[in-house]
Amino acid sequence: xxxxxxxxxxxIVGMIMLxxxxxxxxxxxxxxxNMFEWGLILAAxxxxxxxxxxxxxxxxxxxxxxxxxxxxAVMLVALVATLIVGFAGGADRLNNGEAYKWVFxxxxxxxxxxxxxxxxxxxxxxxxxxxxxxxxxxxVLLVAAIVVMIGRVPIGExxxxxxxxxxxxxxxxxxxxxxxxxxVGAALGAIATGIRIILGIERSHLGGx
Length: 209
Hints:
This protein is an all-alpha fold. It has helices at about 5-20, 25-65, 70-90, 100-130, 135-150, 155-160, 165-170, 175-200. The longest helix is centred in the first third of the chain and has 38 residues, at about 25-65. It starts with a helix and ends in an 11-residue tail after the last helix. The model has no long low-confidence stretch (mean pLDDT about 85).
């Protein structure tokens, strides 16, 4: 029963939400919108469970002073402080001058930018390994990357007036075509996975293999 009931609920809900794209009746829209709101409520509950799990996993490690326990302690302190500031601010917490807004603008955003700045070095390292001209495809990728990088800086315009035009063509035609192909493939994969879940073929979300 613990497996059958979730599969039945998944099938019913999946078929109702799938029918929203094909049944334009307003009563059907009311049902699907109500179910979508329930989904938002369940998503919020999932965030709460994630918060509880985060504390359960990291707090014992801090108390036992395991490896890197200091970083986990800072994370937990920041979590509690942000929650307190957010609840204390109430509905006005996002207004300028509020403590929660200050934490978001002057703590979270700079830390987020720092993280992305560190990722840039790893991206550059991965690009160096990927752009080695080992075959024709890698050579084309390397040449296109060099042209785009040079064309995006002022020195590119100084070298040739046609270089920025070439860069725009590379970004708008071949790059857009490749991105759309990736998006189509990802969409087909999502559709296949959704059908497998609705039909009960994919059961990994129930804790099975």
